[in-house]
Design brief:
Elements lengths: L2 H11 L5 E7 L2 E7 L4 H6 L1 E5 L6 E5 L3 H9 L3 E6 H11 L4 H12 L17 E3 L2 E7 L3 E4 H7 L6 E4 L6 E2 L6 H6 L4 H5 L1 E2 L3 H13 L3 E7 L6 H18 L6 E5 L5 H5 L3 E3 L3 H6 L3 E3 L4 H5 L3
Parallel strand pairs: 1-7, 9-12, 9-14, 12-13, 14-15
Antiparallel strand pairs: 1-2, 2-5, 3-4, 4-8, 6-7, 10-11
Helix pairs in contact: 4-5
The structure holds magnesium ion (MG).
């Protein structure tokens, strides 16, 4: 694969095109945030690196001196420590990896706790600052490699799925909800307040639809319920959607409690408050902390 093609595919698949770059220049460490990175610049500051054993081609952040000077002229700022110091701290705190150490410093600077994770670049950003996602790259960092891109391209369905209870509908905030559900009373499903700004949410959903995504609901029925109660609950849920979220859903699935959601929906993107549901999902799954923020990226 050619450099240009690799950059293009990476750019399309990446969760965000905002970057926080770090690099050494004349021994000092500099950093810069770039929003909505364009493909040309991304190509200019990356290079291809072929692994001599696996022959896999990797895309790396490898600015030369001229490009570093360009980044400095665009606002890259001295961080107040040297590359040698970064290396020394990395040996102590980040298994000798300067990139991880840089990430740790930037994460802590943003008031967050750093932990080493392996979330794929298609699923989430490395760091969120003021609700803006960033990928962090320190000099020589690998963006991706050819094999990974081949596996990824085309494998993600363009569909977003939303759970209801605890995700967009505050069922658990209704007083006495569990008691009522046990008595097969569907009122709590009707009375649940929205957990999102419904207007902004609907606007966002219409935007992602315009961007080619399908949108759907995947929500469970009540636990251990009878058929007639299932019907009432499904009806209440559909009415709730109509009342609060003015969009045309491509698919609304109100399924038996405990159903594996991936088996119904495939491998798009899931928003769900339950961690087991997110873990059982094939594709990319998000919690409920920042639904509108995440939707901005679709
Ligand atoms: Mg839920």
């Amino acid at each position: 694969m050619k450099h240009t093609e690799l950059v293009k595919q990476y750019h399309e698949l990446a969760f965000t095109s905002n970057y926080l770059f770090g690099f050494p220049y004349k021994k000092e460490v500099y950093a810069i945030r770039i929003h909505n990175m364009d493909i040309e610049t991304l190509e200019a500051i990356t290079c291809l690196d072929r692994d001599s054993k696996t022959h896999t081609v990797s895309l790396r952040f490898c600015p030369n001196n001229a490009q570093k000077e360009l980044l400095i002229s665009k606002g890259a700022v001295k961080q107040g420590y040297t590359d040698d110091e970064l290396h020394a701290w990395a040996l102590k705190y980040a298994k000798g990896n300067r990139g991880s150490m840089f990430e740790k410093l930037e994460t802590e600077k943003a008031g967050q706790v750093w932990k080493k994770d392996k979330v794929p670049f298609t699923v989430d950003a490395d760091l969120w600052i003021d609700e803006v996602p960033y990928q962090l790259k320190y000099a020589k960092a690998t963006f991706t490699n050819e094999a990974t891109l081949k596996n990824l391209s085309g494998s993600l369905e363009k569909a977003l799925w939303f759970d209801m209870d605890g995700t967009i509908a505050d069922l658990y905030g209704v007083k006495g909800w569990l008691d009522m559900l046990t008595k097969e009373d569907e009122t709590p499903y009707k009375e649940a307040k929205p957990m999102v700004d419904t207007k902004a949410f609907a606007e966002m959903l219409n935007k992602v639809k315009a961007n080619g995504y399908k949108i759907g609901i995947i929500s469970w029925l009540s636990k251990g319920s009878t058929k007639s109660y299932d019907e009432k609950v499904a009806e209440a849920k559909r009415e709730w959607l109509k009342k609060y979220i003015s969009v045309e859903w491509d698919s609304v699935n109100i399924v038996a409690y405990g159903t594996n959601k991936a088996s119904v929906c495939g491998n798009g993107f899931l928003f769900d408050d339950e961690e087991p549901n997110r873990n059982n999902w094939n594709g990319n799954a998000y919690g409920v902390d920042n639904i509108l923020g995440v939707l901005k990226n679709f």
